[in-house]
């Protein structure tokens, strides 16, 4: 196979190709669409949400709302048509097992804030006001929303060896229970959708991480063929997992559009984001660790209780507990606790970051108990092959991450005795933690078209929820085609394009990137073949393997003066374009493939006032090839900020009396402000992983948060000698009050 | 938002006329508009007073400091007269809200701002302040940020203003103008304890507006400062705060003005702390002993017991910061 001579732009620092569009407000997010896309006469839908946590609707008085001029319709379970709601299970969707929440199909209220009606009006203001005027009466039941008190399902269990016995028998055994609060994604862009019917065809502009999901789900809801639904989502203002599933509001918008026979726009308010768009479930996580005196861990037992809804069963993947360390005896029992809450969903580093918090906190506790340096303890338990599967690693450079991190962070300056390093009123501490996240890949396709003017358009139905997919795919395509980035345009976010997997699991670069590379490699080869076969081409007769392309010009490797441009080739052959579809179809790998992190944090704690300040943070990542260091940094810094936030601030508060989310707004649900964020740095160990995928990447978007919260918590312990086992770490916990 | 009419008042008299007929004053609009969007507030008429000439910051002939009600938070904080004489005011302002908000928000609006109690802001919750007689969802609900001082069975929310804490410490007076003329009310009398009527928050009579606040002349120069403790480092209301102003001569405290925020249903003047300080020699022990008196009468709720110790420590720390040690 011909390889391009070098990667001209892959691996280099490149600004976002869509940066200018974004900062000038020209990038069009879901709710921005309208007449420019031929969608005229949009009307506005506003949800009415339940004000009880569980029960039945006994009456809905819509008169006041309907009397407002401009109100077109108020739809609720009493007047909504019954919808087909065909099954739409995984893998065509990411709907978890269970009965999904339906748009006004019954009178049940399952959780606080469940949509019980929708008002459609000609203006947003009228729709909002009318929604307030809808009077709903209920038969109220007592909701159960307290994770710590509610009964759990039967556990899902993983076991190797006999962990319970080994733990009992261990020279040193620890048992701790950690609690993690529920977290909401709080992406900057709210959920938004515009739905338009043309006969039996539905088009939606939806905020989504995967355009196929709204298509498949809405086709199932309305009982129409998938081909009748098109979903577009050219830009997404952050998602962190909450744009994965197609939530009930999308079906409501499509239903409303069908009822009023007009295109309908529905944007969730910030408050409504907390009700029906998923969240990271809260956990109660009991961890037992057994080791010998020298720090060889013999047993680890995870007993986990996690929040789920009653109508669906959301499971996070906690399998980091099986693969991070060479532990012979491991048992994990994960129990879901069905509550009267809406269904949780994936949130950045799903499961892995939650489980890493407990594992990495427990390792720190063990290190302290054994008086072994935390890095040394980890080194002593570093496996040589995958502890769960026995497979060899594709690449695992965690030791290198520790070494580089320790050196760059100045780990040797850490005082192992907690509570003694001081700076004025502040106690100073350092902590570290490791993390891992699986390298997943999925089938993907991409189409490339090289036009007669020498520019190329590459397309795939992937998303760009923020990592910079527009840019990174442009880089891959440009190198494979031998074009400058400016001559390549990458289009995404449209079900009319070749299929791509959900943008999640940090697998887009590996999956879509490999398809893009395949398409562009093949197109380049096709152009070269055309040239070497063409008697009129200066390249006539050259071995195709000896032709390279640079800046749109094909040339003989040994004689760069001999060649011609794509443009010349296509013009002479009267070809308006060359086009083809490339694909990537990953096979089951015989390797253990993961991305890894080592996170280092330094905190200052004012123990009298209970204040924690993260002073410095360093993340060292083993994530395979880095396509674009600038984009990688925005992932890494964003992920680490998310982890600091998880450690110190984020906490969705539920009122146990009625299931109300008390802090459903960004004033009361705390996320960090600039002042909370310290000097941060990311380092990527040099590690192209050729076994993982054709691009050599291992995925970066998820690993960047895994290990951050425990690094902070461990630093707090080192600073104060106080082990806080609940996230977030609050002033009152630090004060012991 | 419920429909409303809007009048841009071009003179004080015009504003007062509308105010008397039930119009609601709007200045910077940074909090009233939010509350209207949430339909917590449903005024029929807004009377925009932001163009009225009530923005001056002046020294009064008697040596006090008078701040016009429509002066912006940012401008007041930066004003040298304020910064030099009463740093506690500049600091309280600069630790409030965000730069953007401070550029819009006014002093009068800051004092008049309503509670941040989440149940007050959620119209589907019971709240005696919003709907008298409906109950207080916070009393046995999630009340981590609520008050421990001045509460009643009817309402346990805090007054959220930082500025008002500094003003309470300095014994500021509120100048009101109304249809019946002008009058002065001490800030600590102006903001009302909830008692059985939490919907009555201040001593404003129908049609009255705040024209200015005045910090009276203090015979002895004060050194002062404000400490705010909160979960994140900016853009958040106080869990606890302390405004401290002291005059110390020869190591002995001659004047002490202390108030606390984040803990009271109104800005909490700590007279017991002040009394304990006067005439005593500064020392870490004194700061600690005085701060212990800060929580006299405190009644914690389910989730805010920590505020008792945190308040003492906040006051102690700020006494130390302002008063120092020998
Ligand atoms: C996100 C956020 C964070 C904040 N954080 C803080 C904080 O940390 N600390 C803090 O102290 N504050 C904080 N605030 C509150 C902020 O300081 C107030 O919103 C602001 O001071 C109000 O001033 P305004 O001029 O905008 O008032 P408006 O919104 O115009 O009015 C507020 C109220 O005052 C009345 N009013 C206004 N002027 C007068 C007058 N002259 N006479 C009589 N009545 C009048 C209005 O009728 C209305 O009821 C925060 C606000 C927000 C939105
Ligand atoms: S504390 Fe006051 S404002 Fe909050 S719910 Fe109770 S009555 Fe309403």
Automatic annotation (TrEMBL), chain A:
Organism of derivation: Phytoactinopolyspora halotolerans
Keywords on record: Molybdenum, Oxidoreductase
Name of the featured protein: Xanthine dehydrogenase family protein molybdopterin-binding subunit
Endpoints of the signal sequence: none
Gene3D superfamilies per the UniProt record, alphabetical: Aldehyde oxidase/xanthine dehydrogenase, a/b hammerhead (3.90.1170.50), Aldehyde oxidase/xanthine dehydrogenase, molybdopterin binding domain (3.30.365.10)
Coiled coil: none
Gene Ontology MF terms in the entry: iron ion binding; oxidoreductase activity
Positions of the Aldehyde oxidase/xanthine dehydrogenase a/b hammerhead domain: 24-142
TrEMBL record, chain B:
Gene3D superfamilies referenced in this protein's UniProt entry, alphabetically: 3.30.465.10, CO dehydrogenase flavoprotein, C-terminal domain, Uridine Diphospho-n-acetylenolpyruvylglucosamine Reductase, domain 2
Any one GO molecular-function label of the UniProt entry: FAD binding
Residues in FAD-binding PCMH-type domain copies: 1-220
Pfam families per the UniProt record, alphabetical: CO_deh_flav_C, FAD_binding_5
SMART domains with a match to the protein in the record: CO_deh_flav_C
InterPro entries assigned: CO_DH_flav_C, CO_DH_flav_C_dom_sf, Diverse_Substr_Oxidored, FAD-bd_PCMH, FAD-bd_PCMH-like_sf, FAD-bd_PCMH_sub1, FAD-bd_PCMH_sub2, Mopterin_DH_FAD-bd
PROSITE patterns according to UniProt: FAD_PCMH
Swiss-Prot/TrEMBL keywords: Oxidoreductase
PANTHER family (alphabetical): OXIDOREDUCTASE, XANTHINE DEHYDROGENASE SUBUNIT C-RELATED
Name of protein: Xanthine dehydrogenase family protein subunit M
Organism, scientific name: Phytoactinopolyspora halotolerans
């Amino acid at each position: 196979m011909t390889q391009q001579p070098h990667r001209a732009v892959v691996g280099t620092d490149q600004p976002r190709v869509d940066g200018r569009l974004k900062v000038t407000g020209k990038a069009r997010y879901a709710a921005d669409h309208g007449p420019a896309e031929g969608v005229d006469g949009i009307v506005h839908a506003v949800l009415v949400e339940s004000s009880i946590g569980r029960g039945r609707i006994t009456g809905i008085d819509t008169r006041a709302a309907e009397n407002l001029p401009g109100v077109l319709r108020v739809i609720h379970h009493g007047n909504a048509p019954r919808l087909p709601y065909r099954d739409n299970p995984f893998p065509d969707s990411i709907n978890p097992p269970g009965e999904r929440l339906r748009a006004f199909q019954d009178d049940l209220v399952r959780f606080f804030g469940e949509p019980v009606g929708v008002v459609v009006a000609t203006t947003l203001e009228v729709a909002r006001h009318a929604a307030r005027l809808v009077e709903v009466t209920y038969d109220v039941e007592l909701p159960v929303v307290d994770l710590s008190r509610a009964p759990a399902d039967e556990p899902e269990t993983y076991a190797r060896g006999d962990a319970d016995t080994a733990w009992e028998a261990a020279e040193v055994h620890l048992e701790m229970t950690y609690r993690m609060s529920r977290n909401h994604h709080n992406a900057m862009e709210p959920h938004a959708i515009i739905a338009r019917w043309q006969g039996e065809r539905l088009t939606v502009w939806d905020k989504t991480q995967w355009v196929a999901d709204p298509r498949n789900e809405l086709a199932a809801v309305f009982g129409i063929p998938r081909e009748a639904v098109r979903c577009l989502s050219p830009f997404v203002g952050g998602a962190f997992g909450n744009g994965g599933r197609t939530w009930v509001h999308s079906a409501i918008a499509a239903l409303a559009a069908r009822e009023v026979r007009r295109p309908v726009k529905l944007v969730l308010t910030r408050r409504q984001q907390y009700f029906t768009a998923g969240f990271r479930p809260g956990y109660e996580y009991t961890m037992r660790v057994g080791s010998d005196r020298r720090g060889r861990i013999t047993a680890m037992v995870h007993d986990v209780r996690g929040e789920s809804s009653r109508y669906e069963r959301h499971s996070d993947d906690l399998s980091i507990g099986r693969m991070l360390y060479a532990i012979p005896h491991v048992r994990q029992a994960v129990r879901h606790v069905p509550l009267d809450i809406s269904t949780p969903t994936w949130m950045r580093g799903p499961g892995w970051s939650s489980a890493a918090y407990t594992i990495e906190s427990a390792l720190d506790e063990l290190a302290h108990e054994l008086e072994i340096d935390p890095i040394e303890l980890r080194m002593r338990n570093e496996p040589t092959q995958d502890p769960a599967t026995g497979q060899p690693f594709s690449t695992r450079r965690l030791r290198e991450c520790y070494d580089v991190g320790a050196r760059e962070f100045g780990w040797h300056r850490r005082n192992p005795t907690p509570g003694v390093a001081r700076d004025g009123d502040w106690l100073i501490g350092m902590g570290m933690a490791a993390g891992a996240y699986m390298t997943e890949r999925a089938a993907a396709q991409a189409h490339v078209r090289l036009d007669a003017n020498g520019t190329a358009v590459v397309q795939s139905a992937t998303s760009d929820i923020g990592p910079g997919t527009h840019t990174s795919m442009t880089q891959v395509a440009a190198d494979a085609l031998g074009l400058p980035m400016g001559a390549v345009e990458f289009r995404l976010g449209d079900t009319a394009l070749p299929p791509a997997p959900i943008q999640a699991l940090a697998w887009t670069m590996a999956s879509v990137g490999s398809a893009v590379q395949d398409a562009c490699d093949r197109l380049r080869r096709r152009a070269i073949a055309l040239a070497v076969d063409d008697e009129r081409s200066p390249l006539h007769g050259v071995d195709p393997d000896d032709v390279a392309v640079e800046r749109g010009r094909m040339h003989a490797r040994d004689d760069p003066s001999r060649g011609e441009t794509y443009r010349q080739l296509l013009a002479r052959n009267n070809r308006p374009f060359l086009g083809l579809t490339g694909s990537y179809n990953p096979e089951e790998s015989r390797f253990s493939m993961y991305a890894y992190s080592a996170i280092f944090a330094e905190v200052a704690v004012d123990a009298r006032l209970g204040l924690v300040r993260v002073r410095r943070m360093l993340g060292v990542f083993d994530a395979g090839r880095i396509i674009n260091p600038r984009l990688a940094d925005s992932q890494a810094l964003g992920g680490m900020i998310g982890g600091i936030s998880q450690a110190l601030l984020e906490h969705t508060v539920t009122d146990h009396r009625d299931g109300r989310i008390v802090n459903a707004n960004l004033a009361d649900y705390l996320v960090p402000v600039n002042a909370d964020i310290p000097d941060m740095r990311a380092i990527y160990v040099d590690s192209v992983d050729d076994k993982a995928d054709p691009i050599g990447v291992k995925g970066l978007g998820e690993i960047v948060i895994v290990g951050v919260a425990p690094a902070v918590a461990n630093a707090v312990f080192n600073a104060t000698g106080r082990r806080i086992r609940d996230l977030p770490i609050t002033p009152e916990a630090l004060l012991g009050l | 938002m419920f429909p409303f009419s809007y009048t841009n008042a071009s003179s004080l008299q015009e504003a007062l006329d509308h105010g008397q007929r039930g119009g609601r004053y709007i200045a910077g609009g940074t909090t009233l508009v939010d509350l209207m969007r949430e339909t917590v507030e449903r005024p029929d008429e807004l009377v925009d007073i932001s163009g009225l000439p009530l923005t001056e910051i002046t020294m009064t002939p008697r040596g006090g400091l008078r701040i016009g009600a429509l002066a912006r938070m940012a401008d007041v904080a930066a004003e040298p007269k304020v910064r030099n004489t009463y740093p506690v005011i500049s600091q309280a302002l600069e630790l409030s809200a965000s730069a953007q908000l401070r550029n819009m928000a006014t002093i009068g609006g800051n004092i008049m701002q309503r509670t941040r109690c989440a149940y007050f802001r959620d119209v589907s919750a019971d709240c005696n302040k919003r709907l008298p007689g409906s109950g207080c969802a916070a009393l046995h609900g999630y009340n981590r940020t609520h008050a421990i001082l001045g509460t009643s069975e009817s309402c346990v929310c805090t007054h959220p203003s930082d500025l008002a804490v500094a003003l309470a410490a300095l014994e500021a007076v509120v100048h009101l103008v109304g249809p019946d003329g002008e009058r002065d009310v001490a800030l600590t009398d102006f903001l009302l304890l909830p008692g059985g009527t939490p919907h009555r928050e201040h001593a404003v009579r129908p049609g009255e507006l705040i024209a200015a606040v005045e910090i009276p002349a203090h015979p002895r120069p004060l050194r002062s400062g404000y400490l705010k403790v909160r979960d994140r480092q900016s853009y958040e209301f106080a869990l606890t705060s302390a405004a401290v102003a002291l005059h110390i001569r020869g190591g002995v405290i001659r004047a002490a003005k202390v108030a606390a925020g984040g803990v009271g249903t109104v800005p909490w003047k700590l007279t017991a702390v002040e009394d304990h300080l006067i005439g005593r020699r500064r020392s870490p022990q004194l700061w600690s002993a005085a701060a212990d008196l800060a929580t006299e009468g405190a009644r914690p709720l389910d989730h805010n017991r920590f505020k008792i110790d945190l308040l003492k420590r906040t006051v102690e720390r700020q006494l130390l910061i302002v008063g120092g040690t020998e």
